[in-house]
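Let's do one together. I've listed all components of the complex below, 637 residues spread over two lines.
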Amino acid sequence: MSLGRSAGVSLVGLNGHMIDVEADIGGGLPSFLLLGLPDASLIEARDRIRSATRNAGVPLSPRRITVNLIPASLPKRGSSFDLAIVVAAAAASGAIDNPPGVVYIAELGLDGSLRPVPGVLPAVMAAVRAGRPEIVVASGNEAEARLVPGAHITAYRHLAEVMAAYGAAEAIVPAGPLAHARTRRAPAVQKATAPNEDPDLSEVIGQPLARFAVEVAAAGGHHLLLVGPPGAGKTMLAERLPGLLPDLDDAEAMEATAIHSLQRGTTGLDRLLRRPPYESPHHSASMVALIGGGAGLPRPGAASRAHRGVLFLDEAPEFNTQALDGLRQPLESGEITLHRSAGTATYPARFQLVLAANPCPCGLSTGKAIDCRCTPMQRRRYFDRLSGPFLDRIDLQIEVPRVNATHLGAGRGEETTATVARRVAEARRAQRARLQPLAITRNADLPGTILRHDLALPARTTATADRQLERGLLSVRGLHRVLRLAWTISDLAGQECPQPADIDVALQLRHHAQGAIA
Amino acid sequence: MNHNQELGQRGETLAAEYLARRGMLVLARNWRCKTGEIDIVADDAGTIVAVEVKTRSGLGFGYPAEAVDPRKLLRPNRLASAWCRENQANHRTRRVDVLSILAVPGRETEFDYFQAVVP
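Okay, and this is what the predicted structure of the assembly comes out as:
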């Protein structure tokens, strides 16, 4: 047989496309042609493959080998096609007999070892979705590939093992551990969950209102803005929010892990990300770092890495205004679509946004603002950087006052993360039971139409909010956000539905920081 | 004469025998002109063939034919025309072949014959 076939997966963002690999051996001088729009790293596969096959004891046919990656019009990149190309080429020369329909995802070393590649999780998910559950990966990626339900994974360490499994007689399987065998685990997964395990809410002194706001934010998935002077505990509070959130369910964990799989180098993940991720980029972050992008095919940014978790922007007014406004769309839609010349990628970005800000450049314009040295103009300019449409999307806007000596003395026996997390979990359960028919799990995701119809509250309950709408103090979107908050507050209290008092509290929580901002 | 030159010469003798076995008539060996040399000029049923012979005694540096640079084969192509001019054979069709010979000591010699490698 002079024609061999195999298959691989090409990732465009998180979307995997099935690629059929064909190899043809023809007359002519030995050469290796790779067709189907390979990029620079993929064209190098030719030379990796020549060396790897020789060192595995199954050299390629000394003829003209033409390899085609189908669909030929889709640009392909990266090194994950190496194994698929070798299998097709070896099958074309008759050296092996490979079963049809199997998908190969691995890179080759010059010694013939199979090396792990980034993005195995989304690639395997795509293959399973495409009805090709038989997948071969490098043993370094085995644990990650096995996370996908329904996938039949076979893992090999060395090309010779693959060849021997398909009936090549002369393959030399090396004895002993391979050079890269020890690079299997990396601590990055741990890092993503670390903020949840370490800081405890009981370490925050005083701040009963801010504490309550953080609890409400955790229970309903609402966005949160904390405004206060330096040293009041804004950052401490924000860092403790992820610890209050419940574990991700299977579907959420799969989505979040897929993004982190793309970000990996050559070390595979070995379990799903069960704790909500936490991202806190520095305020010098660019648009691309926050939203995603970059040269070539767009890569995910901090907003996508925080998918199903918390995106914390400390010193929010110090961020680049454009970068912040870039977050407006994902705040509404929960995803980011990036268009670049090399292709279009869509990444999920349903994160919970937490902002911390000083009230003014010197940070002391709080309470009576006796020590503040800022001019009124400076103060206004400072908060103008957080644009109106942006702030309108933040449900909870809280002022965090300075802690005084009395609080410090009384700062014993504050509630722990575990206690609050239990109440949050209870409130989440109530939400899930109510929202199940709508296929959403959190009050924050409630559409406005549902709030006005299926979950409409009696006019007596919403009277205060309605009055504010009439007087122009609330936008319609603002009203919806107040209603969502009220539902969460009521869920936390274990009530059937919100009472007039809950609406008042929601309005308070939404507007609390406006004195400081305006 | 060093090892490689000796191997090359032996390879060309083996090549001439191989081509003769295939029913080709060897017209010249190591034909030289100002611009270069053709290893073997042969007549294959009326077609003038310039054969580039590549001999190796092991696979340590890959197959012999892998060492033939397709771009450099334009030269035997030009030389073949020169040969035809000199020998009043301009009306004959021409072609360039590569004969790869693997002569591992103590093993049977392997021939790999690539015909018409210059399009």
